[in-house]
From TrEMBL:
It comes from Eucalyptus globulus. The keyword RNA-binding does not apply. This is Late embryogenesis abundant protein LEA-2 subgroup domain-containing protein. The keyword Membrane applies. It is found in: Membrane. PANTHER family: NDR1_HIN1-LIKE PROTEIN 3, OS05G0367900 PROTEIN. GO terms for cellular component: membrane. Pfam families: LEA_2 (PF03168). It is a single-pass membrane protein. The chain crosses the membrane at residues 44-67. Residues 100-202 form the Late embryogenesis abundant protein LEA-2 subgroup domain. Keywords: Membrane, Transmembrane, Transmembrane helix. It comes from the Eukaryota.
Length: 232
């Protein structure tokens, strides 16, 4: 006969289960950046760039509110073309004189024109350049410049461009482009800005006049387009 099991005084639940250990990450001194040094560096750079952008924006807004700058205006007010013809060797002979006005409408801002290059172009091909004397333009001032181009230039025209030239020759009015390549600085009181390099382009319709006689058509003042870029 089988022996009886000893009497148990209480419930039996098996061996004791060890207590569960709590694991947690203690935030470091970097403000909770858990992705490593690379993540913290990227976050710092992003915050720095954002701060700089906001500061520059606020300074630009403050500058505009204080000085209310107006854009400089360029106009070609007169043009005299006394020679513009091709030879049998595709050489273009030209004699062109222009009057260019630059208007600074600002009351508190002066402008240093440190470099002035004026180019004459026909069908996208440069005929010549005229380098003008640098100058300072004061407040609310209009300055007149007189670039001139004379000489000969080998110009290759396509069939369509040759057809355009023939039409212009018949009409006695030629489409000539003028471009300005500038280096300028602005002066606000005693403060001078860094140099920027705006480019100015004028599309001109210039009537041909014989030497000593007026052209059949008259030149109309042309407003120029300005591309204000800081870096090029």
């Amino acid at each position: 006969m089988a022996e009886k099991q000893p009497h148990l005084n209480g419930a039996y639940y098996g061996p004791a289960v060890p207590p569960k250990q709590n694991s947690y990450h203690r935030p470091g001194r970097g403000g909770g950046c858990v992705c490593g040094c690379g993540c913290c560096l990227l976050k710092f750079i992003f915050n720095l760039v954002l701060t700089v952008v906001v500061a520059v924006g606020l300074l630009a807004l403050l500058f505009w509110l204080i000085f209310r700058p107006n854009l400089v205006k360029f106009h070609v007010t007169d043009a005299e073309l006394t020679q513009f013809n091709f030879t049998a060797t595709n050489t273009l002979s030209y004699d062109l004189k222009l009057n260019l006005t630059i208007r600074n409408p600002n009351r508190r801002i002066g402008i240093y024109y440190d470099s002035i290059e004026v180019r004459a172009l026909y069908e996208g091909q440069r005929l010549a350049s005229d380098y003008l004397t640098p100058f300072y333009q004061g407040h609310k001032n209009t300055t007149t410049l007189s670039p001139a181009f004379q000489g000969q230039k080998l110009v290759q025209l396509s069939t369509s461009e040759q057809s355009d030239f023939n039409s212009e020759q018949t009409a006695g009015v030629y489409n000539i482009d003028m471009k300005l390549y500038l280096r300028v600085r602005f002066k606000l009181g005693k403060i001078k800005t860094f140099r920027i390099k705006p480019r100015v382009k004028c599309g001109l319709k210039v009537p041909l006049s014989s030497s000593g006689s007026a052209a059949t058509a008259t030149f109309q003042t042309e407003k120029c387009d300005i591309d204000w870029r800081i870096f090029r």
